[in-house]
Amino acid sequence: MCRMLGYLGTPVLLDHLLYAPDSSLLKQTVDAQMLSMLNLAGFGFAAWDPAWAEPASPLCYRTTQVAVFDRNIAAIARKLSAGAVVAHLRGVPYRADTQVNLENVHPFHFEGLPIVMAHNGDLAGFHQMRFDLVEHVKPHFARQIMGSSDSAWLYALLVSQLDDPVGPLTPDEIVGAVGRVFALIRRIRERHGIARSSSVNLVIGDGRNLVSVRFTFDFGRFEVAPFQGGVEFLSQWFTLGCDYGLHDGEWKMIGGPAGADAVIVASEPLTRDVATWVELPEYSALMMSRDAEGRCRGQVVALDA
Amino acid sequence: MAADTVGELRGVAAFTGMSAREVASLAASLAPFALAAGELLYRQNDPAEGMHLVTAGRIAVRGRTLADGLVALAEVGAGDVVGEFALIEPGRRSASAQALEATRGWFLPREQFERLLFAGDAAALGLARHVRKLAASRTRATIAALAAEAPGAGELRGWGEGAARPSERPADEMATMLLGLHPFRALTPAEATDLLRGGKIVEAPRGAVLAQAGGPADGLRIVVRGALRLALPRPGGVEQLLVHGPGKLAGAGPAVDGDPHAAALDVRENALVVHLARAQAKAWQGGKLAELVARQLTADLRALSRQQGRRRSMAVLNERA
């Protein structure tokens, strides 16, 4: 299980997402509120800003180090502001056969595409399903899959389902592709008789749009007791508003929804006080974009795959 | 405590039907509080340490939501209680409470209340029942408010079909499964077996409707595997309100207040469920199940309130855009 976040809005210092809040993404390495495990298997982010060279192409940073000990991230985060971010902290089962390497660190990104994807969850029986997935991945994307995990394949499937992955993309196109990926995974699971709870929470960004997905195949169908005895760790949350920062001693956005020019999505709130956050419902996607004036608009849509 | 204080407390709705002796037993655990106009009683997200009984004055209850918006939730006055869910769910305040005028009353700390419950104090048990009913009634009111508003565009989902059937899983396997779920770890193996003996174990396929909106209260369902969905039927589909996965209790509101289901209950993923008929669920109301029911009610209420806040905020966001 992993932790992840996405941001879209007026440029924000990465420090304000990754370090500063009392339950910031990097604090979740060892002290997540809704997940009782350590997230030690790597950290990565993709960031965009209109002022940067080649603004459609994300700046990507990945490391297999335990992120809280990585002084390079800290140094970058104190200096770098971005208008869009997708970040991911990788948590894996504490087993010797787990592959902890750079190729499996999220967010996933193929050269030449604006879109990246981070995943929290796991596809049960992925090794059985993998060969059935190949035919649904476009060959030039299949050649770029470096990771061995289900997440790496999910990204390849996602971009293969986009008519024009080079973009520019709309939130509807991204969510449409997610729906098609889920439908084909559902069919392949049925073919293999896989009915174990498999979470596919996603954060997808391309610098212009942000999509957060909360979805689990066969939710709650565990062979043994669910991890940590419950399913709270499978949540997705979001908050929106403007002027994200420290207000009255609290990291939050202000201004009411009518003034919203930014959105944060995350596996769990970045603050212990969750008052200004709401949960994305199960089997749903939040799709957000910004108009020419920088104002946010968005929608929660049902995913009924 | 003076007799006039007991008399004053008997005017509080939460103590209706209690004898003077019962009220006096609770009153010994109370501490007075007084606020000036504008003073904060507690802030949202403060540790929820107990319930306040208002005997004079007025208090506004407000909650924050997306983009730091402020929503007026209630105004309470003499004879009302505020922060009562702190008695049934340890956690944090879900709203702020501020005096609108000079206000006074009594504070019941949860710690003291739990001691009385543990000792089987009749007044404490009665108060716990009252708070559970209050949570059920607020859940019902929130569902009614959601039903009265249009759902978000794109949020309607499909209905399914199917029928539940009795499960043939052995009782010991079921007990092990139940005890593996976090909320039920407080039960002893004997209690789990007893609970299962009192209920029907059913397997229900995705799409099966277990209770219709407006259908009679028919007890409590414990989700052991899979997921149940609380949903509002709408023209052209269904609006999902809550999804209850393993360890969650579905139908807690009707099980507590006996009123009809406020929304439909169907199966979102093939589910294994323990169904306690209303009489059986009621028989457990004094024990550990009562605590789980209370916590489920407050969790449902919070989730529904967040959903309401989300829907309204997104509507404002897109109207403006």
Structure commentary:
The complex is a heterodimer of chains A (305) and B (321). By secondary structure, chain A is an alpha+beta fold. Chain A has helices at residues 15-18, 28-31, 71-79, 126-133, 139-142, 150-160, 171-192, and strands at 3-13, 43-48, 59-63, 81-89, 116-120, 198-199, 201-205, 209-214, 216-217, 237-247, 250-254, 262-266, 278-279, 284-290, 296-302. Chain A has a single domain (3-123, 135-181, 196-302), classed as Glutamine Phosphoribosylpyrophosphate, subunit 1, domain 1, CATH 3.60.20. Chain A is globular. Chain B folds into 2 domains: 3-119, Jelly Rolls (Sandwich); 155-320, Sandwich (Jelly Rolls), CATH 2.60.120. In chain B, strand 4 (58-65) and strand 5 form a beta hairpin. Chain B is an alpha+beta fold and 321 residues long. Classes of the chains: A alpha+beta (305), B alpha+beta (321). Chains A and B meet through strand 10, strand 11, strand 13 and strand 15 of A and strand 4, strand 9, strand 13, strand 16 and helix 9 of B.
Concise overview:
Chain A has 305 residues and is of the alpha+beta class. Chain A is 20% helix and 29% strand. The radius of gyration of chain B is 21 Å and the shape is globular.
Q: What topology emerges from the helices and strands here?
A:
The complex is a heterodimer of chains A (305) and B (321).
Chain A: E1 3-13, H1 15-18, H2 28-31, E2 43-48, E3 59-63, H3 71-79, E4 81-89, E5 116-120, H4 126-133, H5 139-142, H6 150-160, H7 171-192, E6 198-199, E7 201-205, E8 209-214, E9 216-217, E10 237-247, E11 250-254, E12 262-266, E13 278-279, E14 284-290, E15 296-302
Chain B: H1 3-9, H2 20-27, E1 31-35, E2 40-42, E3 50-56, E4 58-65, E5 69-77, E6 81-82, E7 96-99, E8 103-109, H3 110-118, H4 122-148, E9 156-157, E10 165-166, H5 171-179, H6 189-198, E11 200-204, E12 209-211, E13 220-234, E14 237-244, E15 249-250, H7 252-257, E16 264-276, H8 278-283, H9 288-320
Antiparallel strand pairs in B: 1-8, 2-7, 3-6, 3-8, 4-5, 4-7, 9-14, 10-11, 11-16, 12-16, 13-14, 13-15, 13-16
